[in-house]
Write a structure and sequence with these properties.
Radius of gyration: 17 Å
Number of strands: 0
Mean pLDDT: 89
Number of helices: 6
Shape: globular
Helix content: over 70%
Structural class: mainly alpha
Low-confidence stretches: none
Length: 138
């Protein structure tokens, strides 16, 4: 695969991850009452959902920064991979412990999240330039 095609795939994956986190952040911050019907995730504490919404905003900004220049911010791809790995591992652990999801909305995105995590890991492991994230250190 050419370097240009690999970068394009990585950028598309980063854009998808960004959109997912912005969507969940918007729901968490502005409409937490919509999380149970739209995502089938039970909301026990609305304040905790609002705090998590702020965390999703930060994660979306990490995606946006990595999307801006994947080579320069290549170490951030590990955070993106970790974000998607949590989206796979946490529901999988719940299923292993006998807590079957009430609908397909929790299980259906798992393959996509696993694929995104794999793309981010491949991008993080890809040999890049030795550029620093700060211009003054170049």
């Amino acid at each position: 695969m050419t370097r240009r095609r690999a970068t394009l795939i990585l950028r598309v994956a980063l854009a998808i991850g960004f959109c997912i986190d912005v969507y969940v952040a918007a729901l968490s911050l502005f409409a937490p009452q919509l999380i149970p019907p739209l995502l089938d995730i039970p909301v026990r504490d609305p304040a905790l959902v609002t705090i998590a919404g702020g965390e999703y905003v930060v994660a979306a900004l990490v995606y946006l920064l990595a999307l801006r220049d994947p080579r320069r911010f290549q170490p951030l791809l590990w955070l993106c991979a970790l974000d998607q790995a949590f989206a796979v591992v946490l529901p999988a652990l719940a299923v292993v412990h006998g807590q079957l999801p009430p609908s397909w909305k929790i299980v259906a995105p798992l393959p996509l999240s696993a694929l995104l995590a794999a793309v981010y890991v491949a991008g993080a492991l890809r040999p890049g330039t030795k550029r620093s994230a700060t211009p003054s250190m170049q």
